[in-house]
């Protein structure tokens, strides 16, 4: 009988904080910039330079720790993690080992199997390293220290995850919390959220953990899922062959869908941690904690519940609208404006435009919700115009496309481009008669019982009117004339 194996997964997630400046100096922490332009003696490790802690980093770490149900160490310290690598200018990294700022938290995730708590061992503050750029043409490596000293919070989970679905659910939950708090944009493609996967396999039911490996270079959720499956299969294959899994750090190549060994996995003792002599302990008062707690925003799950309760939305619609804080903010502003204009059913009408057209256009344009830049007032005005019957739904969607792309003011745009719905029944009647006269076979089919052809006739009238007719009025006029009999 073939052995059954269980996968055990823990994550080390690095979140780059959205501060204006770096953790220990005043250099810009903004992504990009010409190489080595966001640098100073502190973040390039010059002798005699001294670090000064950025208070905003502590605020962000506290907010994230509270949102993840962590306990707070009101006295925490920084340590030096010693290692040599070309992108590490000091030959050590300032981090937290002995007294991290947060510990013993959890996030609750939801998968097809139901709800599950993923425990968080700790969160600690640290500085990022620089970036090596390998030039294959010149056969050399260049270093950019712009990222050196950018503030990070590292979130270390317990090995509570058992498959890729749970891992992705955990990461998505963590990313949403960070974005709602405003502590990070969590863009994996820019490296502002990075996950290292610690994975081992063991015989199902044995309870004896296997040897773990750590996988790096994972810059998308899809890559993480593929890497988990690939490493699981690799380890099982080794065990089936009677070989041992080596504790090591591996690099995932997503193009080839394979991993390869980078180095043996280090333990804390290998880094010779000791307290940083240049940084005093961080003492967090009760008043400081109270200020952070008071500023905590409504998070995604709370917001979705409120949308269901106050706006009467379905759980599905509420989850879509709250998938991004920016999207939710735009939606709420639109609802508020519609309510001020006394539009009946404002929350549902606004939701239809965001879930239908906005998300469709985001997908078509390959954009993220954070890229939305249209004015909520313009969408609200378009909805009002639709409610008055001044434009039909087809035209409104075209106008919204211009609002989405260029943030045009809809009322003047509709007027300028002659897009108002034609409500003159005299004009519409003459067009209807013209279409009926041009399509005698279709008229005959309708009058013989094939009523589905009415849609074709409506389409012909709309085409003749360049989409500016009211479909309901066109339907009514066509049916009135068709029901008069062969002579029309």
TrEMBL record:
Protein name: Aspartyl/glutamyl-tRNA(Asn/Gln) amidotransferase subunit B
Gene3D superfamilies the record matches: 1.10.10.410, GatB domain, N-terminal subdomain (1.10.150.380)
PROSITE patterns noted in UniProt: GATB
Entry's family note: Belongs to the GatB/GatE family. GatB subfamily.
Keywords associated with the record: ATP-binding, Ligase, Nucleotide-binding, Protein biosynthesis
Described function: Allows the formation of correctly charged Asn-tRNA(Asn) or Gln-tRNA(Gln) through the transamidation of misacylated Asp-tRNA(Asn) or Glu-tRNA(Gln) in organisms which lack either or both of asparaginyl-tRNA or glutaminyl-tRNA synthetases. The reaction takes place in the presence of glutamine and ATP through an activated phospho-Asp-tRNA(Asn) or phospho-Glu-tRNA(Gln).
NCBIfam families in UniProt: gatB (TIGR00133), PRK05477.1-2 (NF004012), PRK05477.1-4 (NF004014)
Domain of life of the organism encoding this protein: Bacteria
Domain Asn/Gln amidotransferase: 329-482
EC number: 6.3.5.-
SUPFAM superfamilies: GatB/YqeY motif, Glutamine synthetase/guanido kinase
Subunit architecture: Heterotrimer of A, B and C subunits.
Catalytic activity: L-aspartyl-tRNA(Asn) + L-glutamine + ATP + H2O = L-asparaginyl-tRNA(Asn) + L-glutamate + ADP + phosphate + 2 H(+); L-glutamyl-tRNA(Gln) + L-glutamine + ATP + H2O = L-glutaminyl-tRNA(Gln) + L-glutamate + ADP + phosphate + H(+)
Enzyme class: ligase
Membrane-spanning parts: none
């Amino acid at each position: 009988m073939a052995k059954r194996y269980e996968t055990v997964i823990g994550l080390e997630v690095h979140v780059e904080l959205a501060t204006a400046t770096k953790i220990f100096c005043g250099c810009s922490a903004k992504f990009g910039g010409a190489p080595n332009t966001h640098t100073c003696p502190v973040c390039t490790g010059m002798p005699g330079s001294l670090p000064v802690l950025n208070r905003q980093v502590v605020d962000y770490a506290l907010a994230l720790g509270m949102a993840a149900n962590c306990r707070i160490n009101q006295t925490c310290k920084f340590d030096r993690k010693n290692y040599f690598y070309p992108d590490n200018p000091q030959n050590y990294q300032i981090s937290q080992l002995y007294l991290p700022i947060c510990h013993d938290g959890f996030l609750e995730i939801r998968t097809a199997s139901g709800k599950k708590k993923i425990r968080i061992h700790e969160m600690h503050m640290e500085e990022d390293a620089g970036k090596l750029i390998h030039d294959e043409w010149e056969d050399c490596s260049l270093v950019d220290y712009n990222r050196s000293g950018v503030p990070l919070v590292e979130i270390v989970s317990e090995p509570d995850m058992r498959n890729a679905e749970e891992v992705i659910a955990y990461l998505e939950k963590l990313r949403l919390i960070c974005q709602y708090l405003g502590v990070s944009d969590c863009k994996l493609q820019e490296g502002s959220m990075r996950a290292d996967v610690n994975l081992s396999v063991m015989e199902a039911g044995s309870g004896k953990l296997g040897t773990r490996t750590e996988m790096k270079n994972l810059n998308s959720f899809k890559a993480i899922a593929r890497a988990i499956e690939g490493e699981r299969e690799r380890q099982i294959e080794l065990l089936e062959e009677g070989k041992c899994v080596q504790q090591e750090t591996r690099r995932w190549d997503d193009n080839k869908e394979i991993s390869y060994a980078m180095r043996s996995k280090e333990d804390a003792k290998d880094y010779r941690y000791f307290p940083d002599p240049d940084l005093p302990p961080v003492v967090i008062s009760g008043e400081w904690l109270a200020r952070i707690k008071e500023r905590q925003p409504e998070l995604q799950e709370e917001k979705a519940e409120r949308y269901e309760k106050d706006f009467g939305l379905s759980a599905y619609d509420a989850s879509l609208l709250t998938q991004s804080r920016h999207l939710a903010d735009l939606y709420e502003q639109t609802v508020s404006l519609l309510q001020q204009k006394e539009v009946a059913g404002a929350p549902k009408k606004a939701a239809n435009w965001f879930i239908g057209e906005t998300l469709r256009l985001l997908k078509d344009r390959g954009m993220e919700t954070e890229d939305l830049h249209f004015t909520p007032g313009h969408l609200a005005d378009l909805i009002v115009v639709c409610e008055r019957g001044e434009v039909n739904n087809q035209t409104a969607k075209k106008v919204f496309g211009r609002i989405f792309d260029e943030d045009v003011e809809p009322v003047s745009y509709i007027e300028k481009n002659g897009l108002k719905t034609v409500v003159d029944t005299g004009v519409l009647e003459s067009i209807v008669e013209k279409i009926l006269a041009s399509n005698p076979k279709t008229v005959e089919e309708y009058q013989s019982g094939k009523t589905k052809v009415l849609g074709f006739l409506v389409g012909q009238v709309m085409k003749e009117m360049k989409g500016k007719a009211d479909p309901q009025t066109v339907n009514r006029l066509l049916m009135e004339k068709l029901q008069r009999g062969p002579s029309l």
